[in-house]
Amino acid sequence: MNARQKRSKKAELAKEQGSCCWWCRCHLPLHKLTIDHLKPKSKGGSNSSENLRLACFECNNSRGNSLYPPERIYKIRS
Ligand SMILES: [Zn+2]
């Protein structure tokens, strides 16, 4: 995805999911959110909306290529 595609994809996701992190539920302005792949691209995940979620940098970064939610959300929620 190029920068423009990412921007429009983010706007699309924000409309469906709200402008917040899918994992930790923090509300952030769109430009601070990243596009996270539920199934990482390196594991065959697609760029379709079903596989994409908005995530804050910390969550996206801590997930890396994992198939599982970032560990930090368990610490935040407990
Ligand atoms: Zn988050």
Automatic annotation (TrEMBL):
Gene3D superfamilies: 1.10.30.50. GO terms for molecular function: endonuclease activity; nucleic acid binding; zinc ion binding. InterPro entries: HNH, HNH_nuc, NA-targeting_endonuclease. Residues 8-61 form the HNH nuclease domain. This is HNH nuclease domain-containing protein. It comes from Merismopedia glauca CCAP 1448/3.
